[in-house]
Amino acid sequence: MKKIVITVIAALSLVMTSCFSTGYGNTGYGNMGGMGNMGTGNVLGSVLGSVLGNILLGGMTLDQSSLLGNWTYAAPNASFTTEQAFVNAGGATAINQLASSLASNYKAMGINSTNTSFAFKPGNQFAAQVHGIPFNGTYTYNQQNGEITLKSASQTLKGNVTPTERGMALMFDAKQMATMLQKVAKVSDTQAVNAVSQLAKSKDGARVGFELTK
Question: Which helix (H) or strand (E) holds 149?
Fold first, then answer.
């Protein structure tokens, strides 16, 4: 089964949840900016829109040429490796909970569109900054399943890339995400880092990370 497979029915369920449970039914997802200056309501609206885009494009992968370019952090992103994992975790409710929790923890860390970005270059080179800390090296990308490996002089991270409505999502499992935030980004808020790691661990097959836009 392809990576990051989620159903359109879940998308509709998530929209209903966002409208009636969180009160952000009027928050559009066609113009979601970075989180740096956003209030809590706008942050959650942005997150839900990001997840909706990911659901609608579930199971698809970017080709190598589409991966190239400069990508800027736009919002948190959460997904599951298989449709079965998504269903077992609780469906749209689980996605909603993951995304909302990521939003508050990323905000606590200070991650925003001005200090987190990724540039993928020809020749399998990448240049990134996470929480304002440079992270450069080489990458390998498997277009068939969306798996990506980022390798610097001191760290190797393995994650998944999938298209979203506004760009792409770069996601990791619990261990890799903790490494990204604590060792690569040198986030000093260990409580927030641990919370994000536990989120990824809490649901079998869960992946957490960033939605990026060009």
Answer: strand 147-151
Q: How many whole angstroms separate alpha carbon 50 and alpha carbon 78?
A: 9
Q: How far is CA 81 from CA 37, 155, 185, 192, in A?
A: 32, 23, 25, 24
- The closest of 48, 63, 102, 91 to 205, measured between CA atoms, is 91
Q: Give the span between the Cα atoms of 42 and 48, in whole angstroms.
A: 10
DSSP 8-state symbol, 88: H
CB distance 77 to 54 below 8 Å: yes
Give 184-205 pLDDT, tens digit per residue.
Answer: 999 999 999 999 999 888 888 7
Distance, CA of 23 to CA of 94 (rounded, Å)? 18
Alpha carbon of residue 55 to chain centroid = 12
Identify whether 120 is part of a domain.
Answer: yes
| Alpha-carbon span 154 to 175, nearest angstrom | 16
Tell me the pTM.
0.73
Under 8 Å CB-to-CB from 144, ≥6 apart: which residues?
Answer: 61
**Distance (Å, whole) CA 117 – CA 20:** 33
- Confirm whether 3 is domain-assigned: no
Residue in the block written with tokens 């450069």: 136
- Does residue 26 sit within a domain? yes
Q: In degrees, to the nearest 5, what angle opens at C-alpha 129 toward C-alphas 125 and 134?
A: 80
Q: What's the domain count of the chain?
A: 1
Q: Considering the domain boundaries, does residue 1 fall inside one?
A: no
Q: Is the pLDDT of residue 38 over 50?
A: no
